[in-house]
Every structure is written in C-alpha cells, then in structure tokens.
C-alpha cells in the first residue's frame, strides 16, 4: 500500500478539456492536494512526471504525476475517437481498483462523453455514477452537487418531468435521505445533519390545492424519519428555500427532481460546483461540467470546478481518516 495515498484522477474523454484542466488543477494545488492522473502519455501535451507504478508517487513531483494507461486511438481536441472509448472505461475501473485497495484515498473523475462511449464500446450505463455503482456492487447511490454555500441532492435525476411523480416513491425518498444523512456525518464531519426537503408541487402543494404528493407521501415519511432522530424540515416550497437566510438553517437540500436542485446551485456558483457520489464505499468527486468540445485545446477552459472537486475529495478523505 502506498504510504502517501493520493487522489487518483481518471482522464475522462481525451478529446475534451479534461487533460487541460488537470494540468491547471495541479498547478493550483501542488502544495495542497496530492494528485496522480491516469491517462495515456501520448494524449497529454503539458509536462508530466511519469510514474512506473502508483507506489512510486512521492508527492514531491514538480510536474503533473501521471500513471500511463494505453489507449487505442489518438486525441484530437474536440473530436472524440471511438477507438478510445474502452480506454476511458478501463481507466475509471482502474481508479476504482486503486481506491478500493486503499492505494489511493479518493477518485476524481474528469468528464466523459456518453455518446462516444456508447458508439465506441457499447457502454451500457447512463453515466459515470451508474458505472461506479456497478463496479462497487452498490445498488443505490445518490448524486450531490456541492459548493461552499449550498449542497443539493435530487431524488430523481435524468428523467422527463412528467415521469417524476410516478418515479417518486416513499422508498426512493427514504433511501436518498438516509444516504445523504450518513454521508454528511461520515464525509463532511457534520455530527447532526439538518436536511431541508422540498415539496414536489408549487408552494409545496398548498394544502392539496396544487397537488397531493406532499400530503400523501412526503409529509408522512418525514414524520416517521424524524421519530428516528433525523433533523428534517419540510416539505418546503422550493421557491423560498434557497435564499441566503433560508440556507443558513440546513446542511443540505433534498430536491424532488433535477432542475429543482441544479438551478439554485448553478445560479449561486456556476463555475465552482462539485458532483459528489454518496453511498459508495469510496470517495468520488467530479467537476460539474462536461467535455466542452467547443473549447478543447484552446487553453481557455476554467479549472475552478476541478480544483474544488479535488479539494473536496482530499477533505473528505481526511474525514474518513486517510
């Protein structure tokens, strides 16, 4: 086992901005967060310190530490090569193997391009999160978006809005709340997490005038979980729970659907949000943006979210005792 366990960084789609922002993040964090990039050396244009193995990492490297992984294709900015799809998938699995064995303290994943993975390797998962859950053998994980001023967790994620009411079950909501509560204690050092739970309908249903899910599903569950000792408030009207004064009264917001969660956090901190997967046996963070093919290779990509994701991964690993 490596005595200095770094955050391993999977390269993601090599035709995107990931490799560029990895260099920028290393320059910003070299004295703060130990980082090792998993990528094909041929795809990386900036200076690196190539490691023969992960346990060769010292933390004193002056250039971005890199652990080479062979890819089948070249990397042209903005033009994904389907030959690289399997390499992208395998690098993620390799990163999971490192953190599972304890050779790395956390995994930070750079953006992938789902269509390129499907086209090149028949990738069977909707995205990173589902693939990581499968690798870990975990049935249910939760997506959190976090920045210094707000943490949000959507209960339902990438589904059409008209599918949300049927997808929103008591079991799903309870699992989401409990996973979030446990992660806030274990990974964020919050002994007694306070969770604010949004309603599904406008004005949280307004007593049934605008919908009944708050009355029939959300409120009864919150009452039962509160009896178990969880600190819960809600169901709350989503249009009044994200201003600064309201945010001071909770540690995370549980939201019923994708945009209810992501609009407020991207409004508050568009560049610095971090995607965190809760419920895995290891720590995984990611920048909250995509491959940005339109600016790949131009040098203008903003590394703020990746820097925040690496800091958060390192901080979370400290909470877990690494």
TrEMBL record:
Q: Which GO terms describe its biological process?
A: pyridoxal phosphate biosynthetic process; pyridoxine biosynthetic process
Q: What else is known?
A: The active site is located at the dimer interface.
- Give me the gene this protein comes from: pdxA
**What is the protein named?**
4-hydroxythreonine-4-phosphate dehydrogenase
The entry's cellular-component GO terms read:
cytoplasm
Q: What is its main location?
A: cytoplasm
What species does this protein belong to? Litoreibacter janthinus
InterPro entries to which the protein is assigned, alphabetical:
PdxA, PdxA_fam
Enzyme class, one word?
oxidoreductase
Q: Which residues bind substrate?
A: 128-129, 266, 275, 284
The entry's a divalent metal cation-binding residues are 158, 203, 258
Give one GO molecular function term. 4-hydroxythreonine-4-phosphate dehydrogenase activity
The similarity annotation says: Belongs to the PdxA family.
Do you know which Pfam families this protein is assigned to? PdxA
Localization per record: Cytoplasm
Spell out the subunit comment: Homodimer.
Q: State its Enzyme Commission number(s).
A: 1.1.1.262
**Entry cofactor note text?**
Binds 1 divalent metal cation per subunit. Can use ions such as Zn(2+), Mg(2+) or Co(2+).
Q: Which keywords does this chain's UniProt record carry? A: Cobalt, Cytoplasm, Magnesium, Metal-binding, NAD, NADP, Oxidoreductase, Pyridoxine biosynthesis, Zinc
Q: Does the keyword Magnesium apply?
A: yes
Under the heading NCBIfam families, the entry gives: pdxA (TIGR00557), PRK05312.1 (NF003699)
Query: What pathway or pathways are given for this protein in its record?
Result: Cofactor biosynthesis; pyridoxine 5'-phosphate biosynthesis; pyridoxine 5'-phosphate from D-erythrose 4-phosphate: step 4/5
Q: Which SUPFAM superfamilies match?
A: Isocitrate/Isopropylmalate dehydrogenase-like
**Known cofactor(s):** Zn(2+); Mg(2+); Co(2+)
What the protein does?
Catalyzes the NAD(P)-dependent oxidation of 4-(phosphooxy)-L-threonine (HTP) into 2-amino-3-oxo-4-(phosphooxy)butyric acid which spontaneously decarboxylates to form 3-amino-2-oxopropyl phosphate (AHAP).
Catalytic activity as recorded in UniProt: 4-(phosphooxy)-L-threonine + NAD(+) = 3-amino-2-oxopropyl phosphate + CO2 + NADH
